[in-house]
């Protein structure tokens, strides 16, 4: 994918000195270093345009430059292929992605200049911090892809950051991040810009990720989402439509006879029983449980006065709200409801309100106020 002149530049910038001060001329008495030349440029002495077309295969599709690249030139990436930078680079002219992908395989892959992602993909593939020494600018048709395997995996921008387009987060090695984790640091964001979309891979299917933009960072807001639908899903912002059963703590209380519960209780069953698509739980004595029930799986469930297992929002007699997922299990931590709002449930399952949680403020209805 390099033309004749570019190949000469690679040989020139990776050549070995002759060892004689008066004869150190890479075009004369210098020695070629073909091993180093195989790993790309040693310096950008002028602006370098690299056009790689993935459809041609081979190094056009993907190549890695492992050398430490110096110089004052700019790296301009075009075409659909992928160029990986793995050296301790110090080139100062910046990096311009006009097509395809540039992958940072070292903390200083982008040298000391700015990075402009005009119409391509910037991939971070480093364990730990990756540093952009100047500005980072991303346009609408571009993607920033971050590989996150620990809390130390951060993209740090020393200058101004301008966000747009897609942010893709790849959570590797089964890593589950916590809410409030910083993934991008920057010196300033003068335009208060935002990514237009976010895509995640590697998390459990019920995990939902949102972004919080602070003055100098982008942080994660992590929660779970119940994918079930129906009238059980009522938001705390509409409390009058949610269940209010004056929650009982006596899980062995016999329910009021209502036909269905009578039938279950007289069948001699124990444990979880399903009737007409609804779930009930019977004690070892065969009586129908109501109120809060801690099952053998260690999770808490709520059964109303008829013994029916509830899902969605439930309000206790003291006014506290709890959220039960589509399986009926009580939830804790951040939860994104079907109304699109985020709510925080403490370790006892109670919905918090009118306070800061992990740096995020939840209002009087419990919803996170962005």
Written description of the protein model:
With 370 residues, the protein is mainly β. Helices cover 5% and strands 36% of the residues. The chain has helices at residues 4-13, 34-37, 260-265, and strands spanning 43-44, 48-52, 62-65, 70-71, 75-79, 82-85, 95-97, 101-104, 115-117, 121-124, 130-132, 136-138, 143-148, 155-162, 166-171, 182-188, 197-201, 207-213, 217-225, 243-244, 271-275, 278-282, 291-294, 300-303, 312-315, 321-324, 333-336, 342-345, 355-357, 360-362. Strand 23 and strand 24 form a beta hairpin. The longest helix has 10 residues, at 4-13. The protein is elongated and about 95 Å long. This is Phospholipid phosphatase.
Indicate the multimeric state: single chain
Radius of gyration: 29 Å
User: What percentage of amino acids are in beta strands?
Assistant: 35-45%
> How far from one another are the termini?
47 Å
Instruction: Let me know the largest β-sheet.
Output: 12 strands, mixed
Structural class: mainly beta
Would you report the number of β strands?
A: 30
Measured as a percent range, the helix fraction is under 10%
Would you kindly provide a brief summary of this structure?
The chain is mainly β and 370 residues long.
């Amino acid at each position: 994918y390099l033309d004749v002149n570019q190949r000469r530049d690679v040989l020139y910038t990776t050549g070995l000195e002759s060892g004689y001060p008066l004869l150190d001329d890479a075009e004369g008495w210098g020695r070629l270093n073909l091993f180093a030349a195989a790993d790309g440029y040693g310096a950008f002495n002028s602006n370098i345009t690299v056009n790689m077309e993935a459809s041609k295969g081979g190094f056009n599709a993907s190549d890695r430059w492992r050398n430490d690249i110096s110089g004052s030139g700019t790296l301009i990436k075009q075409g659909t292929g992928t160029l990986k930078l793995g050296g301790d680079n110090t080139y100062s002219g910046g990096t311009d992605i006009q097509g395809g992908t540039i992958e940072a395989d070292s903390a200083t892959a982008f040298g000391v200049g700015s990075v402009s992602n005009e119409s391509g993909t910037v991939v971070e593939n480093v364990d730990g911090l990756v540093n952009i020494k100047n500005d980072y600018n991303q346009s609408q048709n571009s993607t920033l892809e971050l590989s996150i395997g620990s809390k130390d995996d951060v993209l740090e921008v020393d200058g101004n950051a301008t966000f747009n387009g897609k942010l893709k987060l790849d959570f590797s090695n089964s890593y589950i991040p916590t809410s409030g984790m910083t993934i991008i640091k920057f010196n300033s964001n003068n335009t208060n810009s935002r990514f237009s979309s976010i895509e995640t891979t590697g998390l459990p299917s019920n995990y939902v990720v949102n972004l919080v933009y602070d003055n100098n960072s982008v942080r994660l807001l992590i929660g779970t989402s119940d994918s079930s639908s129906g009238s059980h899903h009522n938001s705390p912002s509409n409390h009058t439509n949610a269940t209010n059963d004056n929650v009982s703590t006596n899980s062995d209380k016999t329910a009021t006879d209502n036909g269905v519960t009578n039938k279950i209780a007289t069948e001699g069953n124990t444990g979880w029983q399903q009737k007409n698509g609804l779930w009930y739980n019977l004690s070892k004595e065969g009586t129908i449980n109501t109120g809060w029930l801690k099952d053998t799986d260690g999770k808490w469930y709520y059964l109303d006065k008829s013994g029916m297992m509830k899902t969605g929002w439930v309000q206790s007699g003291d006014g506290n709200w709890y959220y039960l997922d589509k399986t009926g299990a009580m939830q804790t931590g951040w939860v994104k409801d079907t109304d699109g709002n985020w709510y925080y449930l403490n370790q006892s399952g109670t919905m918090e309100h009118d306070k800061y949680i992990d740096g995020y403020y939840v209002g009087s209805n419990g919803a996170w106020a962005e």
